[in-house]
Amino acid sequence: MGYCSLDDVKAILDNTSGAMRNFETNLETQIAFAQAEVDARLEAAGVDTPLGTPPSYVRLATAALVAYYLVRRANTQGQFDVLMQEYRLQYDRMIKDFVAGQAEVPGEAMPRGDTVLPAVFNPHAT
Length: 126
Prior knowledge:
The chain is mostly helical and 126 residues long. Helix content is 54%, strand content 0%.
């Protein structure tokens, strides 16, 4: 089982742009790439990689990274620069928090009171 599911990624992307709902790429492959990056980053920080069901924070961070990969592929004319940066920023912040031991509370995806990927779902919200 991967760190995130197709549904996790689609939930993020469905609320961004109708132009990105149909993908020419295999989402399972992108999830595998994202999981490898997450594993490498956790191992480099000296944190054990999750076995079995991943912690919710790792699941959400991985889904944000997959979204970044997919938007980056569609960003041929720079039209998704802000969105792409938001996904990458969210992934980086979540992994840093997880490595620092500040993020994971069992059964709670966002223990600090944050909402799930707020700027990503609506990058033009005020």
